[in-house]
Amino acid sequence: MDDLNALADEHLAAARTSAHGRSAHRLLHEEPLRQTVIALTSGSALDEHNAPAAASLQVLRGRVRLTAPSGDVELSAGGLHPIPQERHGLLALEDAVVLLTTVNE
């Protein structure tokens, strides 16, 4: 079993040295379920992209803004939010680590 705290530390350190300010690790890939730890440095973003069939975002560290046409949502450590069924993006408001859970059809 993976240690989320250790993975958060590891990938945040990697994101801080990355030219793009991010690092990710897929924890689980058992179709249709996937879980990925994503670390982003402050100001880094995941550009707008399509939503999977179902997804949620849990913030492990820091603060992020989930952006979508239906409205932006700010989340901080401990926050959990469903990802809207529309194109969306993610912006790190400070150094952050999130757990993305998706179900793909």
* Major β-sheet strand ordering: 1-2-9-4-7
Tell me the count of domains. 1
CATH architecture: Sandwich
Structural class: mainly beta
Order of helices and strands: HEEEEEEEEE
Can you count the beta strands?
9
Rounded average pLDDT: 94
CATH superfamily: Jelly Rolls
Any overview of this molecule?
This protein is mainly beta and 105 residues long. The protein has one helix and nine strands. It has a five-stranded antiparallel beta sheet. Strand 5 (63-67) and strand 6 (73-76) form a beta hairpin. 13% of the residues lie in helices and 52% in strands. The chain has one helix at residues 4-17; strands at 22-30, 33-40, 45-49, 54-61, 63-67, 73-76, 80-82, 88-92, 96-103. The protein starts with a helix and ends with a strand. The longest helix has 14 residues, at 4-17. It has a single domain (4-103), classed as Jelly Rolls. It comes from Streptomyces atratus. InterPro entries: RmlC-like_jellyroll (IPR014710), RmlC_Cupin_sf (IPR011051). This is Cupin.
